[in-house]
Amino acid sequence: MPPGDPTIAASPEFRLLVECCRASFAGPADGALRGLCRAVDWPLFVRLARFHRVQGLAWSGLRSAGPQVPRDIANVLAADARAIAAVNLTFALEARDLCSSFEKKGLPILFVKGLTLAALAYPEPFLKMGWDIDILTKAGDLARAAAALEERGYARTIPAPGADLRQWHSKRKESLWSRPADAMQVELHTRLADSPMLIPGIGIDSSERRVELLPGISLPTLSEDELIAYLCVHGASSLWFRLKWVTDLAALLHHLQPAEVERVYERSQQLGAGRASAQAFLHADDLFGSLKATRLRETLEEDRVSRNLAAWALRQVGRGPSEPTQTPLGTLAIHASQFFLLPGTRFKIDELFRQASNCLR
């Protein structure tokens, strides 16, 4: 992290949280966690972990710090980790049944983010926190997919039941479905980016792979290149204000050789991720050193806009444990940054209309 950053990103609590997240996918660095534990405001650390939705990863990382962690803090994080794992088990079972239901009806389905990503990125995937199940299907199968969800007890939450679902999906990437019986939520996607100009080549017909969550539970998701490009755009859409998003990306990059990191970035450009991937790779490097042993940082920083987007992301993730919507103009930087994810006037005009349309919905 840049020295002298005045935000909470420079605090010992945030630096410890980043190191815990790193340890969750790369293993603990000798002495690093213990040293950082000495100057920590532990209640603030817990608040940060919960805000960034990485309590399970924090608990996983802190286990190697031993007695440096107060017992009450260790107990709180351990309880959060158990709760996250329990919820993930219910998600895994529901995802299995959703997959089976869709496939029996001949409906294409891919699972994005969530447990499929966790299984690819982390040694202990059930510690990665999730709120819902994200599925992708074909736009032309929207009505049948909605009916399949309704058969499983889901009701449409966003948009409201009276709205035209097809019209909604023509302008937005997903709808939200909830099941009152157990509070399960599903986001049904027919595309993966808010703007149709971003990653237009990634969709239900993209190359895929199956990921085993548990014995007998194997789910289809995007292949590596497509998944990383998608994660870059997904994080950029919210200016990376949660640490969990960049941690997921850094975890995937950690498993790649330097030449592969460079290749995956180049592939993200072919897939239409634009500056979202430059921002993402620089942000992952700022926090986790993801570009070490590559030439990418020097190359990406040649573009002033990409440098600024990465700096915005670092400031945003370091704003502290408060939702952007809870502070005056808290989402202004998020919306402003989206205009720069692709070069050119056409994209900016399209983005202006897209954001204006969302404000009027």
Descriptive notes:
The chain is of the alpha+beta class and 361 residues long. It has 3 domains: 1-69; 91-221, Beta Polymerase, domain 2 (2-Layer Sandwich); 223-361, no CATH class. 53% of the residues lie in helices and 10% in strands. The protein contains 16 helices and 7 strands. Strand 4 (174-179) and strand 5 (184-189) form a beta hairpin. Helix 9 packs antiparallel against helix 10 (243-254), helix 10 (243-254) crosses helix 12 (275-288) and helix 12 (275-288) crosses helix 14. The two termini are 39 Å apart.
Keywords:
361 residues; alpha+beta; five-stranded mixed β-sheet; globular; disordered N terminus
Biggest sheet layout: 5 strands, mixed
- Write down the secondary-structure element order: HHHHHEHEHEHEEEEHHHHHHHH
What percentage of residues falls in helices of 4 or more residues? 40-55%
Q: Which consecutive residue ranges, at least 5 long each, have pLDDT under 50? A: 1-6
Task: Tell me the strand order in the biggest sheet.
Answer: 1-2-5-4-3
